[in-house]
Request: fold
Amino acid sequence: MKVMLLAAGRGERMGALTETCPKPLLEVAGKPLLSHHLERLGAAGFTDVVINTSYLGDQIREYVGDGSRWQLRVQCTHEPERLETAGGIINALPLLGSAPFLVVNSDVWTDYPLENLKQDITGLAHLVLVDNPPHNPGGDFALEAASGKVRDPDDQAAGTSDSLTFSGLSVLSPRLFAGAEPGRRALAPVLKQAMAKGRVTGEHYQGQWVDVGTPERLEAVATLIRNRAENSQHRSQSCR
Reply:
């Protein structure tokens, strides 16, 4: 399964931190956020990654190279004008092939086991949903516990439960974008069209997840990573 790693965002809420540095290259616990993603993808058994770039994209392409330092094969696309999520994916489809692919938003951090997403999907998309954070209390999509289907919460006929937040992790079929014209396009409307046809499934993940959208959340992720490293070291020492 190939991977689409989304890295074209401007990161306006980061303020001065992203004036000269693209958001995916901001350091977290001693290394760029992007490096954490690539390390985890390699550890989970993925080998082929496509990264879309736009704002200060030359820095990302130079840093990543061909991906060999992570034992990955990496290709980058560039968007002179940011195409948003669906537009960026459509632009990259020639590199992603005809099979379902994993999509990872580079400005989230989670301990979700990525190897769990190396799976066939029965519909057009499979989404990982998480509890609503304080900055998104209303959630994004609703998950039907019995069927595992994801619905538009505004679809009153669906009889769905309370909404959850889309984590930025998903497995998408290229068929989700069939007939879509290239250009600037958000992902949510595309997903909602598929949801209306019952073609989107999902799961509720309740582990660690952070939308790294502000300097404060960037520091929160650094603390989580440091704590995980310390806990891992303590467990290793206790087993000796």
In short: The CA atoms of residues 109 and 227 lie 14 Å apart. Helices lie at 33-43, 57-64, 84-96, 187-196, 215-238. The chain has a mean pLDDT of 92.
